[in-house]
């Protein structure tokens, strides 16, 4: 079964439970409302036509400033690296209410599950947007795929997304006293606090960041390389 036939079959089976289907780069994304998250996941696991028995990954996504670009890409010079003069995505510089309006992105946070059917050799991406931007939450998928346990803890730790029904929702990657969620787009690149060992107190202490200057990362801009153009020309019998 090709990808188009598979997409039509998923759309017919889910009906109104799926608010959007999108095929891109050979992968199918199915978007559902948060209240249908568990029901659709269970259906995709149990329906013999799909049988997505394996949860490969689950992650959070922060769509803050999505579609709003501060970097020059197409208008940059042909040499070196170029970037926007003034960044717009740092803390306090972006207002969610003033964001570019994209009807396909109704809320800031989303949860994405990547599914695999070994029986039918199909993959599928399941996505739902959290209804509340201030306190994002989604039903836990542990009852559907037990492997969601640590994935959901990671999404909670890094994005602050709560998973209702999770039996042990706590941080998994950051320290016990960590403040904030580091994968949120408005989290400062230098962090909020730094740690050091205090020889007088004989313990690690937390302090406001002072040793690192705020910075904006410079992305790599990929441009045409004349070496590759010459190699292509030689292979095609052109320039010698």
Please sum up the structure shown.
Helices cover 18% and strands 24% of the residues.
Explain the layout of strands and helices.
Blueprint lengths: L2 H12 L3 E7 L2 E6 L4 H10 L7 E9 L46 E9 L4 E8 L7 E3 L8 H12 L2 E3 L28 E6 L4 E6 L17 H10 L5
Parallel strand pairs: 2-5, 6-7
Antiparallel strand pairs: 1-2, 3-4, 4-5, 8-9
Description:
The protein contains four helices and nine strands. The protein has helices spanning 3-14, 37-46, 148-159, 226-235; strands at 18-24, 27-32, 54-62, 109-117, 122-129, 137-139, 162-164, 193-198, 203-208. A five-stranded mixed sheet has the order 1-2-5-4-3. The protein has a two-stranded parallel sheet with strand order 6-7. A hairpin with a 4-residue loop joins β8 and β9. The longest helix has 12 residues, at 3-14.
Q: How many helix segments?
A: 4
The general outline is globular
Residues in helix, %: 10-25%
Biggest beta sheet attributes: 5 strands, mixed
Low-confidence stretches: 80-89
Beta content: 15-25%
CATH architecture of the domain at 3-66 and 102-174: 2-Layer Sandwich
The average pLDDT is 83
Neighbour order of strands in the largest sheet: 1-2-5-4-3
Question: Structural class of the helices, strands and pairings?
Answer: alpha/beta
């Amino acid at each position: 079964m090709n990808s188009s036939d598979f997409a039509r079959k998923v759309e017919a089976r889910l009906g109104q439970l799926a608010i959007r289907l999108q095929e891109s780069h050979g992968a199918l994304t199915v978007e559902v409302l948060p209240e249908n998250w568990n029901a659709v996941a269970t259906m995709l696991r149990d329906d013999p036509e799909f049988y997505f028995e394996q949860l490969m990954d689950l992650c959070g996504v922060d769509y803050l400033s999505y579609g709003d670009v501060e970097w020059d890409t197409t208008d940059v010079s042909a040499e070196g690296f170029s970037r926007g003069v003034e960044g717009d995505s740092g803390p306090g510089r972006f207002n969610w209410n003033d964001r570019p309006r994209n009807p396909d992105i109704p809320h800031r946070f989303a949860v994405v599950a990547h599914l695999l059917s070994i029986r039918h050799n199909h993959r599928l991406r399941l996505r739902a947007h959290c209804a509340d931007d201030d306190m994002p939450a989604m039903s836990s998928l542990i009852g559907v795929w037990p492997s969601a346990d640590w994935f959901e803890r990671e999404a909670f730790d890094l994005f602050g997304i709560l998973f209702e029904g999770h039996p042990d929702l706590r941080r998994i990657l950051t320290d016990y006293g960590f403040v904030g969620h580091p994968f949120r787009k408005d989290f400062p690149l230098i962090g909020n606090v730094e740690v050091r060992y205090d020889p007088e107190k004989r313990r690690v202490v937390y302090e406001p960041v002072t040793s690192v200057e705020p910075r904006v990362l410079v992305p790599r801009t990929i441009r045409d390389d004349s070496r590759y153009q010459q190699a292509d020309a030689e292979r095609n019998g052109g320039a010698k």
